[in-house]
Amino acid sequence: MGLDDKADNKKDELAGKAKEAVGKATDDEGLERQGKTDQAKSNLKQAGEKIKDAFKG
């Protein structure tokens, strides 16, 4: 995948961290959990990108 996909994945990860932080600050467990889920999804996508890159080389 291209740099755009990698940048989008990183953006999603950072957005998840922000959600988690806001959830913690406001004592909103649902928002905190959603942020953690978003981060996990982004991390899986990033891992997939790394695997694809390894097979390209």
TrEMBL record:
Parts forming coiled coils: none
Protein origin, superkingdom: Bacteria
Region (Disordered) residue spans: 1-57
UniProt feature, compositional bias: Basic and acidic residues: 1-39, 47-57
SUPFAM superfamilies per UniProt: Hypothetical protein YjbJ (SSF69047)
A Pfam family it matches: CsbD
Ranges where the CsbD-like domain occurs: 5-56
Record family assignment: Belongs to the UPF0337 (CsbD) family.
Name assigned to this protein: CsbD family protein
Native species: Nocardioides mangrovicus
Taxonomic path: Bacteria, Bacillati, Actinomycetota, Actinomycetes, Propionibacteriales
